[in-house]
Amino acid sequence: MFSSDFEGNDLGGSSANSSFVDPDLRDKQKTVARKTLDALITRKHLSFDEAEQIQSAYLSELDGMASVEVFETIVRLSTTSPRDIPQFIRQLGDAVSKTLERNVPYVPLAGRLQKPSAFYERHDSVKPLCKALLTPILYAEESEVIGIGSINPKAAFVASELVANAVSATEPVKPFMSVVRVDYDTWKTLLEKQFGL
Fold first, then answer.
1. How far is 145 from 126, CA to CA, in rounded Å?
2. Are 140 and 109 in contact (CB under 8 A)?
């Protein structure tokens, strides 16, 4: 299922994704990847050895990038047909989602929502963390109700906590955070629209 090098799938890349990342956010990225791989081991989607190989490849990729999604690392190392990548990513998300205490609904049309530019401007610390974890804001009703999405539910949960803390540090309210999973193509479109990735 996995190749020992990066001759698998090429999902492309962007020079816009090579900027500096705060060391705290870098630690969060690594934590999310490790927890995601642990969840996939728990669900028997990966062996321990496969997870170690993926973790090593992920860290190598992350070394030269501002952000990398571990699901994409898995795809790059896999023998998955390019046309099957969206379904493969969804299966990974389904598996990780089953290890969580809270349901993370799959919302395939989330990309049709408007870009939350005013929210990002009002809370300037939120955009860098969402970009680092590749978890775009889907909607923000003032600062009270915020929706966040990703192909990786672990990443979305970590980002939702960080966003809630960032907002409550500058506003007299702790927002209600809605966390959803989005399909791969929608996620890629949202990353392009919101972060230029």
1. 14
2. no
Half-sphere exposure of 194 (CA within 13 A, CB side): 33
From 43, 66, 97, the end of a domain falls on 97
DSSP-derived 3-state class of residue 140: strand
Instruction: State the total domains in the chain.
Output: 2
Please name which of 27, 45, 57, 2 lies closest in space to residue 133, comparing C-alpha atoms: 27
Give the CATH number, domain containing residue 118: 3.30.70
Cβ(99)–Cβ(22) below 8 Å: no
Alpha helix (H) residue ranges in the chain? 23-42, 48-63, 70-77, 85-97, 117-122, 126-133, 153-170, 184-195
In the DSSP assignment, the letter for residue 43 is T
pLDDT digits (tens, 9 = 90+) for 117-157: 888 999 989 999 999 999 999 988 877 899 999 999 999 99
8 A C-beta contact, residue 155 and residue 79: no
Residue 144 is part of which domain span?
110-195
Q: Which amino acid is at 53?
A: Q
pTM for this model (two decimals): 0.86
What phi and psi values does residue 137 have, to the nearest 5 degrees? -75, 130
Contact at 8 Å (CB) between 138 and 180? yes
